[in-house]
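Kindly inspect this today.
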Amino acid sequence: MSVEIPVFHYKTRTSDASDIYSYGFAFTSGDLDAAVKSLADLFPDMLRLAECEKSCQLMAGEIEKTRRRVNALEHIMIPEMQEKIKYITMKLDENERSTQIRLMKVKDMMLEQTHHYSEKMS
């Protein structure tokens, strides 16, 4: 499962190509220039890190859902199905025994009827 995360392009510069920083130099120190440059250098890596972190969070959520489904299958559905299979097998065996007994009784009745019939004829 691939998740598309939109990519945002952050710019530390203004739309004017000759203006390298988006603030005025009159009221700021040189340290701000270094900080803005560091931010500009690190920002793509920070975005990539945020993307990876979000992907990991989404995967963790999917893994948790899958774990719950597996637990439900292992602890609820499979035992229920095994009980149903056991019940159905027992009923089929019972029906088979019942049919076998019925056939044996019919055979005995037929033999008895045939035997009595042959005795009456003699």
Q: What stands out?
A: The radius of gyration is 42 Å. DSSP finds one helix and no strands in the chain.
